[in-house]
Amino acid sequence: MRCLYLAVALGAIVSCAPRNVVPIPHPEALQSFCEAKRVPRLTAMENILTSLKDGDPKPSSQSYARLVAAAKAQTGVVATWNGAQVIMPEDARAFGEADRYIRIRRVVFANVLEGAPPPRPIDIEVRDHGSYKWYNFTAYDTQNVCVEGQRAI
Questions:
Q1: Cα distance from N-terminal residue to C-terminal residue, the chain
Q2: 3, 10, 31, 68: which one has the fewest Cβ atoms less than 10 Å from its Cβ?
């Protein structure tokens, strides 16, 4: 009987979940600036991207080289995609997209201090009316993208 209730509850939860959201794929390339004995965590990057504030990006005032330097100094990761889609209806409209998704090419994940309160700034290269430009977004997930582990050989 208990299993039946669990099955019904699980079915109700699954039926409420949106079915048309495009998942964020794994990056096609990663530049890791994690400390020794730390590795990039893909789920942390995905969680940070899904915590972005919709409707308030600011054009980035820094060059790509400066953004990478910040990721090196603070430890972090530069992730590269080929137009991955992130659901953000307001920003997608502002960037000239026909659907609810922004298209991203690169993201610089510079780590914030452990226990830092949200939000955190995040720099993303976004397709803006056909060409890619750097914008600074606000993310509410402050977890570290570098976690303890060993690199696969």
A1: 48
A2: 3
- The C-alpha R_g of the chain, in whole angstroms, comes to 17
CA angle 102–57–116, rounded 5-degree value: 110
Residue among 108, 112, 106 nearest 140 (CA): 112
Query: Quick one: which of 96, 103, 128 has its CA closest to 49?
Result: 103
Whole-angstrom Cα distance, residue 4 to residue 2?
5
Per-position pLDDT tens, the chain of length 153: 554 455 554 454 444 545 577 899 999 999 999 998 899 999 999 999 999 999 989 999 999 999 999 999 999 999 999 999 999 999 999 999 999 999 999 999 998 877 778 899 999 999 999 999 999 999 999 899 998 876 655
Residues 128 and 75: their CA atoms lie apart, in Å, by 28
Please name the residues in contact with 55: beta carbons below 8 A apart, sequence gap of 6 or more: 88, 90, 91, 94
Place of tokens 């820094």: 62
**Burial class of residue 134 (count of CB atoms within 10 Å of its CB; 0-12, 13-18, 19+):** buried
